[in-house]
Q: What sequence folds into this?
C-alpha cells in the first residue's frame, strides 16, 4: 500500500495514524541522504551519507529508490512480519517502480484541499521560503503523475476523515483478496 502526494499534504501523519489504527499494517522505514531536520528525532528515516546509500544501491538493498530535491530516498526490501500489509510513504518516481515490481500494490494519492492550504501547511512546518516555492512549483506535475498512478484519491482536509476513508478502502481490498471469486 503506497501513499503519495505533494510535500506538506500530511502523508507522514496519515501514515502514522494508519499504523496505529490497524495492527496489520506495517510502515516501512526509508533510507535518505537528506540531513535530519531540527524537528526530527532521527527515527523518521535511516539517515546515511551518499556513499553509503550508493553502496546499498549496488548491493541491491532497495525495492525502489529515487532522487528528490537533490537527495536520495529509498525503500529497503521489507522485512515485515508475516500476515501484515506493508505501507510505504514515498514520492511518485518510487511509486512507479513499486507498481512495476508488484502489480498487486495499491497507490493512494493524497491531495490537499487547496494549493493555498498546502502553502500554509508548508510554512507552518517551518520550511524556508525558497523551499516552499520549490515545493509549490513542482506540485501540479506531482499531482498529474500521481493521478495516473493512483487507484484512489483521498483529500486530506480533516485528518480523522482521511484516515477513516483509507482504512475502509483497505478493509474492502482485504475482503476482495480473501474471497476474489465471490466478488466477481
Ligand atoms: P522529506 O524530505 O520531506 O521527508 O521527503 C521528501 C519526499 O520523499 C516525500 O514526498 C516523501 O514521501 C518521499 N520519500 C520518503 N521516503 C522515500 C523513499 O523511500 N522512496 C521514495 N521514492 N521517496 C521517499
A:
Amino acid at each position: 500500500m503506497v501513499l503519495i502526494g505533494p510535500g506538506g499534504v500530511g502523508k507522514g501523519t496519515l501514515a502514522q495514524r494508519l499504523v496505529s489504527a490497524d495492527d496489520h499494517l506495517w510502515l516501512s522505514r526509508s533510507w535518505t541522504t537528506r540531513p535530519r531536520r531540527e524537528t526530527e528525532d532521527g527515527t523518521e528515516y535511516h539517515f546515511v551519507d551518499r556513499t553509503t546509500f550508493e553502496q546499498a544501491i549496488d548491493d541491491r538493498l532497495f525495492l525502489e529508490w529515487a532522487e528528490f530535491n537533490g537527495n536520495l530516498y529509498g525503500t529497503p526490501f521489507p522485512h515485515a512480519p508475516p500476515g501484515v500489509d506493508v505501507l510505504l510513504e514515498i514520492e511518485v518516481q518510487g511509486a512507479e517502480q513499486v507498481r512495476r515490481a508488484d502489480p498487486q500494490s495499491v497507490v493512494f494519492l493524497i491531495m490537499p484541499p487547496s494549493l493555498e492550504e498546502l502553502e500554509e501547511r508548508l510554512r507552518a512546518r517551518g520550511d524556508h521560503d525558497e523551499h516552499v516555492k520549490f515545493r509549490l512549483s513542482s506540485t501540479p506535475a506531482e499531482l498529474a503523475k500521481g493521478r495516473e498512478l493512483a487507484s484512489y484519491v483521498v483529500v486530506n482536509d480533516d485528518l480523522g476523515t482521511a484516515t477513516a476513508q483509507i482504512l475502509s478502502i483497505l478493509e474492502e481490498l482485504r475482503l476482495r483478496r480473501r474471497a476474489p471469486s465471490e466478488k466477481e
Summary: DSSP finds seven helices and nine strands in the chain.
